[in-house]
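Extended Data, panel c. Modelled sequence:
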Amino acid sequence: MGSSKAVTRGVRIEVSTEYDPARSFPEHNRWFYLYTVEISNDGSETVQLVSRHWIITDASGHVEEVKGPGVVGESPVLEEGESFQYTSGCPLTTPYGTMHGTYQMVTADGDRFDAQIAEFVLGEPRSLH
């Protein structure tokens, strides 16, 4: 399935995706995808993830933006060399789409920056793009 990797100021974000047939109902135009994100602090300063901003685009070009605090109810603090991993899901009304976005990070001294999440593909294994 899809995957992506981006590094911003020492924060490495890797994403892998998986189609979830148990929660998908193509006959009702509903496809469900799981995405697993690993956030690693390869830099030398402690950072905390404070918010997320996702941009989700389906195969028909419909764009949805999702913003909110933290991820899966957490705002992880990552010291040098630490990682945080979580899995979440995304429903689509088409068998194919993409996601990308940013996590707003803050350093221990209060400096804020957006860590990039490179675009990745959500696609049913049998679908043609």
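The mean pLDDT is 95. This feature is highlighted in the accompanying rendering.
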